[in-house]
Write a structure and sequence with these properties.
Length: 345
């Protein structure tokens, strides 16, 4: 269990009341009779208007967390525990019909927009789909579809009658964003929203999300394996390893003063122009251990150069680290990253 980290942790915690509170979320998948824990005791809060970035290598549990928040996990061979509270209400016990109505406030943008579109439907019908489910009258529905498309740079008259295959990848992602915006949500989970796009298109979509967030006071959970993108868009960052949060704090804390060896290993792999800012390798370049039979104690110890007997015997919990962030490590780094320049007031 990662421990209760839903409270404040120095300057990394939201200053306003939480919109979303996740407490000890765990998700298990059963495959061929074997149980795999994809998410293990994850806790965090997201405030209104805040962006929380979730980073980690493939298989760390990022997408599973995102889908769990909207109750989009498969119902067969899947079990989840813990609490997901939206504006104080636990969404776990809600019926499917009630949860469907709740999704007008909670939306998700998927990595591959085309796979989430019905290829036979026209774009205006795709964007209006959520409003139809919510029972919004046609006149209001048309107005909201037009407004959502305008927010992402489309005029309805210019794209009316066209289908998804007639648009580029970047345009499809903008349509996916419009579909999420049309129901006027308060929180959007963005699951690798720019991973499949060209770099120039990525920048446009990221800027678009930033502008919309500020204009609509949206909260975002931004899931990505791209650490540079996450730093640019996030107020706080949570680093995931084998389904657990191993470090969480502000962008400056996590990127400029990383305390967990895994965080430092991720950052060491990111290309930098200034060699003086390069972190030394702090973990072996190897694959994750088995999720079915994870290591005892700290899950990262089999790849960590700092591991000791204590790491094998005792699982570390998230506690305040040397620079104010939360870190799950018995021997966190105390020093600043190479090239770090402390900010002055």
């Amino acid at each position: 269990m990662a421990g209760d980290v839903t409270g404040a942790a120095g300057s990394s915690a939201p200053s306003t009341e939480a919109l979303l509170t996740v407490d000890r979320l765990s998700v298990n998948f059963t495959r061929s009779g074997k149980v795999m824990r994809a998410v293990d005791g994850v806790s965090f809060k997201v405030a209104a208007g805040e962006t929380l970035g979730l980073v980690g290598e493939s298989g760390s549990g990022k997408t599973t967390i995102g889908r769990a928040l909207l109750r989009l996990l498969p119902e067969v061979n899947t079990k989840w525990d813990g609490s997901i509270r939206y504006q104080g209400s636990d969404i776990g016990p809600l019926s499917n019909a009630t949860m469907r109505r709740m999704r007008s406030r909670l939306q998700m943008i998927f990595q591959d927009p085309l796979s989430s579109f019905n290829p036979r439907r026209k774009v205006e019908a795709i964007v209006a789909e959520g409003l139809v489910i919510q029972g919004v009258p046609k006149q209001e529905r048309d107005q909201r579809v037009r407004a959502a498309l305008a927010d992402v740079g489309f005029e309805l008259s210019e794209i009316a009658g066209r289908r998804p295959h007639q648009f580029s990848g970047g345009q499809c992602q903008r349509i996916a964003i419009a579909r999420a915006l049309a129901v006027e949500p308060e929180l959007i989970v963005c699951d690798e929203p720019v991973a499949s796009l060209d770099v120039s298109v990525q920048a446009h979509v990221i800027n678009l999300l930033q502008d919309i967030r500020e204009a609509r006071k949206l909260a975002l959970i931004f899931i990505s394996h791209d650490l540079a993108v996450v730093r640019n868009v996030s107020d706080r960052v949570a680093v995931l390893y084998m389904g657990k949060i191993v470090e969480m704090g502000s962008g400056e804390q996590v990127y400029d003063r990383p305390a967990h060896p895994y965080t430092r290993t991720l950052l060491e792999a990111v290309p930098v122009v200034d060699a003086s800012r390069k972190l030394r390798p702090d973990g072996q370049r190897s694959v994750m251990p088995s999720r079915i039979k994870p290591p005892s104690g700290c899950a990262f110890r089999t790849r960590c150069a700092r591991a000791t007997t204590k790491c094998a015997e005792t699982e570390p919990s998230l506690t305040p680290g040397p620079h104010g962030q939360l870190v799950a490590c018995h021997f966190p780094h105390q020093e600043e990253a190479p090239g770090h320049v402390a900010r002055t007031a």
